[in-house]
Structure formats: C-alpha cells, structure tokens
Specification:
With 152 residues, the protein is an alpha+beta fold. 20% of the residues lie in helices and 11% in strands.
Length: 152
C-alpha cells in the first residue's frame, strides 16, 4: 500500500534529508520497495490513514477497510450524474463501514456488525493514530542518493 503522502518521505530519502519527526507525519519512505530492498512479505506501510474532504477518517489495514462515517465521505450519490453509481446500503443502522476487500473489493457488503472484533481493532487503531497526530514511524533514516545503485 502506498499513498501520495508517501512522496514526501520517499523524496527526502532519495536526497538523504533527515526528516524531523514533526514533518510529514503520515509519510512513509517507499524507496526500499522501489530499490527491491524490501521483503515482499513485509509491508513498509502497516496501515493507510486517509481523510475525506469533509474531515471524515478511513483506515485500511491489509484486507480490511474501516470508514468512521456513513456514506462515501466525499460524493453525493443522491442526485445528478452520480445517482447511477449509488449502492444500496447493506447496514443502514451502522454509524460506520467495514469492508473485507479480499472478498468484497467493490465494497458492497458493510460488515460493521458482523465483524465486531475487527471493527473494534480498527476503531482503536484509528483513535490511537488521531491522538498521536501521526501514522508514520519516528526517527526515519534516509537512504541517500549515494547509496542507490547506478544502472549503466
């Protein structure tokens, strides 16, 4: 998993810049993956925290995606050209959404109530990330261009 926020830490790593812990607090260095140094079984990014235009949070961890709100978080599917993309809500009483992207990549079945343990785990992770003010690791060490092998 990667996100556009990772560009910041990745470019800092390329040029060998030590990012202070209070900068790019949600940016992970993806350079090890780009250079083939990262074990494909170990994700650099253990989770992906995103925020909608309305300030609503979503978190992705492995095959799971939790949305801490109802609806899409950004689009209004009740009118205009977006109506044709509206999905029927499968858990109308749920204050949030939980999807298993491995079995439901189209996010059609909200498992908010059925997968209570996973929901609570992701809610707790989201609460921790919000209170800590960051999702990226501290003390990031850049690779630096001098340590990137040349391709001739």
């Amino acid at each position: 998993m990667t996100n556009t926020t990772d560009i910041f830490a990745t470019l800092a790593s390329v040029v060998g810049y030590d990012l202070p812990d209070d900068a790019a607090t949600d940016s992970f260095d993806m350079l090890p993956t780009m250079l083939g140094r990262q074990n494909s079984e170990d994700s650099i990014r253990p989770h992906l925290l995103t925020q909608s235009f309305r300030g609503e949070f979503q978190i992705r961890e492995g095959r799971w995606k939790y949305l801490d709100h109802k609806g899409s978080g950004g689009n209004d599917y009740t009118k205009g050209i977006m109506q044709k993309y509206a999905l029927t809500e499968s858990a109308t009483d749920a204050p949030g959404q939980l999807y298993d992207l491995e079995t439901d990549p189209d996010e059609t079945t909200n498992l908010f109530f059925q997968e209570e343990a996973k929901r609570k785990e992701l809610q707790q992770l989201l609460k921790h990330l919000k209170s800590s003010g960051r999702s990226a690791p501290r003390n990031r060490i850049p690779i630096g261009i001098k340590n990137i092998p040349r391709v001739d």
